[in-house]
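#lab-general

N.A. 3:47 PM
ok so I finally got the sequence cleaned up, no stray characters, all 339 residues accounted for. can someone with queue access submit it? mine expired

B.Y. 3:52 PM
send it over

N.A. 3:53 PM
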Amino acid sequence: MFEKAQGEKVTLPCTFVLSEEDEGPLDIEWVLIPADNQKKEQIIIMYAVDRIYNNYYAAMTGRMQFTNSDPKSGDGSLDILNLKSTDTGTYQCKVKKAPGVQSQKIQLTVLVKPARTKCSVEGPQEIGKDVILKCVSQEGSPLLSYNWRRVSGIQELPVASTLNKNSGELLLKNASQAYSGTYSCVASNRVGTDECSIELNVTPPINTAGVIVGAIIGTLLGLFILAFLVFCCCKKQREKKYEKEVHHEIREDVPPPKSRSSTARSYIGSNRSSLGSMSPSNMEGYTKTPYSQVPSEDFERPPGQNPAFAPSKVAAPNLSRMGAVPVMIPAQSKDGSIV
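B.Y. 4:20 PM
back already:
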């Protein structure tokens, strides 16, 4: 029986001695016997009539050869290169030379070395808590064995620790800060080993109450800021809407500007009313307003640029058409007495 690691090389021995009675042609044949008896044997390689035939088994094409380039010399051993786990099985060597026949069976087991081993920590790394160090190889033929060791500080494992070599778990009970350090795990089987390491840092318990209060305060603060932003946006929208409405109402309520003619007419009408109400009793202190001082809404002239108009005489019929009312003015003597 042969045990080899994946990727290695194996030589399956097959030596023979011919007798003087063996006079027929020499045939050397290697076959793979399947685990299922219902299946036929698979020829791997053959030597016959001084020729080698090695194209029978595609799974091993390019990975097998006779150890001796001249098998008829008595050595028909077989070399298999770059072994794979699928090469595991029972191999048989047959040597035929009439009338003699010799054969032998060899069991080959291809094992996979441990590989891709990973270390991890399970449980809180706090003082007084139980911590579990885990070690698992993702590749490797059974039976795998795991062993933990401490590589920093004190080399020995803590006294309050329990190791399970089959599962790869190291239990550290009631952890303390003295347990902190680097731990290494070695996974092994019959053909190889693999290793991983991890850092353990045991700290005082976390103040969960303070964390919860901080989280609540942070949440409330975030909600307040969000509400403030929403309020500012709504206020801004209302102000814009109000400005638009006020501007629209002002444009609708503004009356059209008055023309000069309408202003003059209103001024003349008011003077007519004043003339109609004049009497000798209220003539005192009345002064005639010159035409140049008639108000106008369209423009105003500077005081120095107002043209001086000479008073003109208007005939009586024209005054009547203009709406003037005749007024009797009593005559006065030189001394001011009424005549």
